[in-house]
Design goal:
By secondary structure, this protein is α+β, with helices and mostly antiparallel strands. It has one domain (about 5-100). Helix content is about 40%, strand content about 25%. The protein has helices at about 5-20, 75-100, and strands at about 25-30, 35-40, 45-55, 60-65. The longest helix has 26 residues, at about 75-100.
């Protein structure tokens, strides 16, 4: 994520990382654009969703099955790290959005 320059690049990294952490669906809204992807097909039973607030009403949502055993102990630190990284990266994306709009 350190080398990512824009929201599109970050979206690819978020999808890959979410899949590795056992999430099956990722959604986010950044700089006025919404993305959604099913990153893993194997879904069984009930699921839970974490919604991480970002800047200016932006957010990222990750969903995963309750019975998933992938990296259970790492969920809190992973979500905290993801939010912190996206908060920092999104500062530059806001400027790009204003420039594209002619502001």
């Amino acid at each position: 994520m350190k080398t990512v320059k824009d929201a599109d690049g970050a979206w690819k990294v978020v999808q890959k990382t979410a899949r590795e952490m056992g999430f099956h669906r990722v959604q986010w809204k950044v700089a006025g654009t919404e993305w959604e992807a099913r990153v893993k097909e194997e879904v069984s039973g009930a699921e839970w969703t974490a919604e991480l607030p970002l800047r200016n009403g932006d957010w990222v949502r990750l969903s995963r099955s309750f019975d998933s055993t992938v990296h259970q102990a790492a969920m809190g630190p992973f979500l905290d790290s993801l939010r912190g990284t996206l908060m920092e990266k999104s500062k530059g994306w806001e400027g790009e959005k204003r420039m594209a709009a002619g502001a």
